[in-house]
Amino acid sequence: MDFYEQTLLSYPDLMLTVLKVAARGETSLQDCGNALRQTFEQAKEQPPEDFDEVLQHLDHAKRNLMRARLLAPVDEGRFRITERGRQILDEYPKGVDDTVLMQFPEFRSFVRRSTEPVMPASTGPHAYERGYLAFRTGKEPADNPHAFDTAAHLDWENGWFEARDDELEQLRRQRR
55-74: per-residue pLDDT in tens? Predict the structure, then answer.
């Protein structure tokens, strides 16, 4: 049986889990895993024996949600939902998949240039997250460490500009 065919582990369900947990406040992948375990318990279902695989799939969902700017990194390993993410959560309460994410140009751009396998092994923050954190630490777009014509360069840049946009939106709200 395919991983995504298992009860409560469909890709839209995993995406929904990540969004719902992030909607409660700053969170981590481990928090999402714990919430999924609770869902299994409530459904009186047995979670998979290899929960590390579940966490890998949750991480994949989280990264795609970040690429579509539904989530934003906060610091190393932690993230939060964006206003765009809240809107999508309201519009798609039964699940989110890549067809929903394709309405966002950042995600479409990623898909067009992606050579990433479906389930990459990953550790540490990705270029988008590093770019987001770079803005928050005072770096400029010219500080992008990736080669210009690469996906990592664009991911870093998208993260940097998302952090800038978030800060501007926060300042606008404070002025009201």
Answer: 999 999 999 999 999 999 99
